[in-house]
Amino acid sequence: MTNNEMTLETYERNIDKFIERTPKDTIGETKVWLDAIAERVSTGSSVLEIGSGFGRDADYLRSKGIGVLCTDGAAGFVKALRARGHEAMQLNVLTDEIDGSYDLIFADAVFEHFTRDQLAYALSKLNRATVDGGTLGFSIRRGEGEYWSKEKLDEDRFFCLWEPDQLGFAVTAAGFKVDSISESNGYQNIKRLYLLATK
What we know:
This protein is an alpha/beta fold. The chain has one domain (3-97, 115-184): Vaccinia Virus protein VP39 (Rossmann fold), CATH 3.40.50.150. It has helices at 3-13, 15-21, 28-38, 56-63, 75-83, 116-128, 164-173; strands spanning 47-49, 69-72, 88-90, 102-108, 130-141, 146-149, 157-160, 177-185, 191-198. The strands form two sheets. It has a seven-stranded mixed β-sheet, sandwiched between helices. Strand 1 (47-49), helix 4 (56-63) and strand 2 (69-72) form a beta-alpha-beta unit. It starts with a helix and ends with a strand. The relative contact order is 0.17. The mean pLDDT is 96.
């Protein structure tokens, strides 16, 4: 079983716990990043979110008139998303094909569960699913190395940390132009990078 499969199983067993222990409001650097994303798309744009969880970020974009197709690798989150009125489907970007072409693809705190090779693979797949001139946006933990942690859910999840230069190189190698990488100490003092790129 891969690191990602093990992490997904942790999420499946802890859907309610994740929802309970995750902030419900979009605030801080995440809000700033999503506001910047929102400026790049319009009401009629095709928008895909990878790893939507319970739909907090999709709710925020929807409040701005932007429709989002929500996805998650965990079936429990897809069920929760649909119960909250979101269009949602199960999608594991590492193992599933992405149907369609999108003006914007974004992911908040998802790709930190991928190894470096897995992220490179996912980024190349996302590039093929992004229209020319479209936007890629994602947040990821900042730092060095990889580790397993029981934080938040009391069961192991895999994390891979990135420094700005490393991340910029990986995104550029996948065929995107990096527009910005901002840094933040946000929720629970977790160091995080927020990236925006254009195909």
